[in-house]
Structures are given as C-alpha cells and as structure tokens.
Amino acid sequence: xxxxxxxxxxxxxxxxxxxxxxxxxxxxxxxxxxxxxxxxxxxxxxxxxxxxxxxxxxxxxxxxxxxxxxxxxxxxxxxxxxxxxxxxxxxxxxxxxxxxxxxxxxxxxxxxxxxxxxxxxxxxxxxxxxxxxxxxxxxxxxxxxxxxxxxxxxxxxxxxxxxxxxxxxxxxxxxxxxxxxxxxxxxxxxxxxxxxxxxxxxxxxxxxxxxxxxxxxxxxxxxxxxxxxxxxxxxxxxxxxxxxxxxxxxxxxxxxxxxxxxxxxxxxxxxxxxxxxxxxxxxxxxxxxxxx
Length: 292
Description:
This protein is mainly alpha-helical. The protein is built from eleven helices and no strands. α2 crosses α9 (184-223). The longest helix is centred in the last third of the chain and has 40 residues, at 184-223. The N and C termini lie far apart (48 Å).
C-alpha cells in the first residue's frame, strides 16, 4: 500500500465512523474497568463478555434480525444473567469467586459457540457472519451502529460521574461504606451492571474473546502511575482513547489486520511502558523510602 493509499484509507468515511465508535467505547470501558480492577473483580467482566455469545445467538434465532441493537439487547440479557449466576453459585455453594466465574465463563462460551456454529451449519438465512462476534468485526459497523455504542458509552460515563463519590467509597473501603449507611450491595450491583453494559457495547469492537482486555488493561496501566482514583480514571480513559485510535489507524493501514486485536496490542504496549516507568522509578528510590 502506497503512502497515498494509506492516507485515503485513514480518511475514508468508514474509518472515521469506526474511529468515533471505538474511541468512545475505549474511554468508557477503561473508566468503568477501574472499579473492577480496584475491587479485584476483573474476571467478572470476562464472564459477562463470554456470556454475550448465547444472547446474540438467541436474539437472532428469535427475531431473525441482524440489526446491532437487537443482537446487543440479547447480549445484555445473557450477560446480566451470567453475573446473576456467578452470584448465586458463590452465595449458595462452597465455590469460591474465581471458580464460580470460571464455571459460568466456560459454560457460556461453550453454549454460545455451539449455538452460533449450529445456526451457520444449518444454513439459517442471515446467520453467516455471526461468528465475527468472537473476535469483533468493526468493518461491518455502520454510522448508526457507531452512534449506538457511542451513546451507550456516554450514558455509562455520565452515571459513573454522577455516582463517583459512592463508587469510590465502595471500591476502596466497602466496610466503612456499609458502616456509614451506604447501600453497598446496590452500589456494587450498579458497578457490575455498568461493567456488563460496556462489555456488551465493546463486543462489536473486540469480540467476546478480547473485550475484557479493553476493560482491564487501561486501568492496570493507569494504576502504575497513581494511587488516587480521579487521576487513575483520567489516565485510564486517556490510555483507552489513544489505544482505540491507534488500533483503528493500524487496522486501516495494515491489510487484513483486525481492529480489536490491534486495540488490545496498543493498550498492552501502554501497560508495558507504564510498568517499565514504575519499575525504573522504584529502582532509583533510596532504600527505606516508600512510594507516595
């Protein structure tokens, strides 16, 4: 591809449409993911991500429609159901959090993969291409699709900012929040629902397999720079934004490079740089001094 062709690809209408939607999702997913990382529940998003597959298959099988909002509605229902299943298993059995999450994750992914492959194998009209939700397919995003995921992202960010004080208290000290009279259970459920919402919105971008990386890696990178939540949210959002745009640009100029994996690789590079800087700062600090 010549430089002129690369420039034309970057400025193409479809590339700009994809860039807008992916950037919005990248920022919101990174901000919401900070609370999961701080609460040590990063894998909850992974369970919700893999649970979107059976919801997508069910939504298509019931309606026969391929509109993104229909498929995402089904994905949202199954994602929320999976989080409920994790909670039930954890509370009413001797299974620990990580094992309960792994069980729901595996069952959901297996059921979703079987359902989608079954629809395609039987030649159900319109089912071809549903398997793209495994790794994401931004090439198929229309302007309406990008606007949809952008609206979801903005709405989630607005909710986070409106309840930032309560979310911060629950993320850092849930025992104190409960003693102070805050409804910790409801706040915790709301944060989980916001995570599930962003996972669902990001599925068209990174797919069910990689979507968790958009929720976990930017917050993990931001955590290397600060111990305070507001700066962490800002840095995570910035990493998510830059990584998303970098992934879209790389996908546009490199033939056959999927956007989702490119976004994940870009955010991984940001994490490695952040970790390297932290290790360098730690190694230069005189012994006996703690990090501020």
